Amino acid sequence: MTDQPALNTGSHDLPVTPALAAYMAGQWAATPLPAEERVPGYPYFPARRAKLAAAFPGERLLVPAGQLKVRSNDCDHRFRPHSAYAHLTGLTGEEQVGHVLVIEPDGEPVLHLRPRSDRAAGSAEFYRDRRYGEFWVGRRADLGEAARLTGLRTAHLDDLPKLLTGSTPTRVLSGVDPALDALTGRPSAAHTLADGQLASALAELRLIKDPWEVEQLQLSVDHTTAGFADVVRALPAALRHHRGERRLEGAFNARARAEGNGTGYETIVASGAHACVLHWIRNDGRLNPSDLLLLDAGVETDTLYTADITRTLPLSGTFTPAQRDLYDLVLAAQDAAIATLRPGASFRDFHRAGMRVIAEGLASWGLLPVSAEEALHEDSGLYRRYTLCGSGHMLGLDVHDCAKARAETYLDGVLEEGMVLTVEPGLYLQPDDLTLPAELRGIGIRIEDDLVITPDGARLMSAALPREAPALESWMATLLS
């Protein structure tokens, strides 16, 4: 379950002589982790695990961190633990590869992990194993240290296969760790329903954020706000570069790595008609001062919570009249959507409110072949030619958080205090759309903000970034002066 039969050494590694092996085996100082160290948010995790265990009494639940994925040849992608594992353990580091949280039928959580190499016992892993060795990828905790960090009972990962040989009813967060899926006979028709119910329960456990999670999300939003300012400051150099979008991507991503774990998703830096591509991440375009720039980005904290903010900026520093009209329509749609947010409101209400404003605006400009009311009818939707996607989603450890939640608890559910979500209406006027006048083709605008539901409404977590066009222009001018 842990290592391959042989150490993960590279094909071009130098051989280790018996003399070197003997020399490497001794005279290493003890390097214990600080005894007082705990995972951030330590007090909040026991209740989460207990709630999950209570949902499946008498069953064993397996929540893996996941495995390394090869990027190319012998190089792996940077590892990030699965969000469900991080949510239940507080462990978020790259050293969590292959680890599994087991919740036993009696409700006791046990963390099965690969502890650091026991050099005293003669293990050569610490300097010979490229994938897991301490000299190659950094230190792991031993069993005792992991127990202190998390408050969990710990066991060696090698003990897991024996544990799973019995007949205890077992559910697995499948599709995350191929080795664990193989060990437990996944995927199979017999397990599909049970595993799907576990995945839904894990997602629904994250729908309402506790106070510590809201703090982490606010921290992410604050770092993201600083990253947006970095992008504006980088505009003069980027406008001169043949791939200006990449220069701006680098400016934001530098902030994300400096202040957090990195970006919460691939940064979208879309200028001109690229902004009409909803998930434009090539970011290889040249910047034209007459165009708009759509920047959709989020910093992921070290605790793995991410922001998700979008601003559409005039690269010249000032909107043209046509750009301003379109921008103000999207802003009005966002304002209408935000006004619906409160406990007890349907999750879909904010999208409906925003789309009504969009449809009415398009109809007033003569861009729809039918009235706004007709376009909004459920058997029509013609306005969606210009605004294809939804207007928001839950936010948390994943940018599209709680995606496995059942529809009745999320998309068809109601908002509750502590939920965190985005509101992001947009207009995407394709460059080849002959239903549009030429001066409007190739313009994409999205305005996206992050909000937490409060007892009587919603708090705009990203309020530090201006949304109104005049304030946006003034903000840019200040940063560029």
Summed up:
Its cofactor is Mn(2+). The protein is built from 16 helices and 17 strands.
Name the helicity range.
Answer: 25-40%
Count of helical stretches:
16
Structural class: alpha+beta
Oligomer: single chain
Radius of gyration: 25 Å
Question: Could you characterize the architecture of this molecule?
Answer:
InterPro entries: Aminopep_P_N, Creatin/AminoP/Spt16_N, Creatinase/aminopeptidase-like, Pept_M24, X-Pro_dipept-like. Belongs to the peptidase M24B family. Keywords: Aminopeptidase, Hydrolase, Manganese, Metal-binding, Protease. One of its GO terms (biological process) is proteolysis. One of its GO terms (molecular function) is manganese ion binding. The structure is a single chain. The chain is of the alpha+beta class and about 475 residues long. Helix content is about 35%, strand content about 15%. It is built from 16 helices and 17 strands. It has a 5-stranded mixed beta sheet. A hairpin with a 2-residue loop joins strand 16 (about 450-455) and strand 17. Helix 13 runs antiparallel to helix 14. The longest helix is centred in the middle third of the chain and has 23 residues, at about 210-235. The N and C termini lie far apart (about 60 Å). The mean pLDDT is about 95.
